[in-house]
Amino acid sequence: MDWHNFGSVCEGSSEGQTCRIMKKREKEAKPLEIYIYIDPVHPESWTLDGIVKKLVIEYGNYFTLRYVICITQYTMELAQGKKTANQKSSKVSALAVIEDQRFLTDESRSPYRAALAIKTAELQGKSAGKRFLRHFHERLHLEPEHILTNRVLLDCASLAKLDLDEFKKDFYSKSPITALYCDQKLSAEMDVQECPTLVLFNIRDDQEGLKISGHYPYPVYVQLLTEALGHQPTADAPPELIEYMRRYQFADTEEIALIYDMNAQETLREMKKLKLKQQVEPVTTKDGLFWRYTGG
User: Residues 184, 70: contact at Cβ < 8 Å?
Assistant: First the structure.
């Protein structure tokens, strides 16, 4: 597949939205596009979160980052309430289920609600969608048992500074379903079989895109970025640690260590300094130790 020529576009809002696969934009300011495919309720999909943040910090001036929602077998199993997957199940059948409005009810706790909520947030702009996704990820650690409830999804929308009335109206419309179909079509075009997957391509040449699935050490992604660019990029320095926390609000110890090339002991020491200044607070979850920005 000649991936570099394609991109997903969902146009319009509410009931008038349409979806198509478009040819590459000629006037993109940055030479690269990176598509990251995630299943929002699948824990493994988030293993690249720290790596993506480090790429954005060091090389963000070279690429545009786009999140694409994929529906994995894991989510279909959750939706079906089964421990063993039906290997013949397909993403198409999952999307057919999504069109049944009953799954949208608060009582259903369907995992598809997460995907649709993210696509609903994106109707208010790509930046709004990314803000919503960040808060959704935080709540996934803090309240995993409630992550699919209206209360948590609306809290995420509020924290992301979305128009709540618009969010609630759009969530029950066809628009996010159309947008999710668009993501699944793009997944098929790029032959994405698992999440997380990164696809990199240079919009300024005719080379095939570079795809990598799973989780690898950070230098592997830098090497892919270099191959896609055709030259060695120059890395920007990370911001001061407190600035990083102010920007992202919530991060685990491992992520901070990766961003600042520190070991676990050094990271804990630096975070404890910020804690003494009452700028962050530790938050212990089943997934490990996190830090929340508190101000300052």
Answer: yes
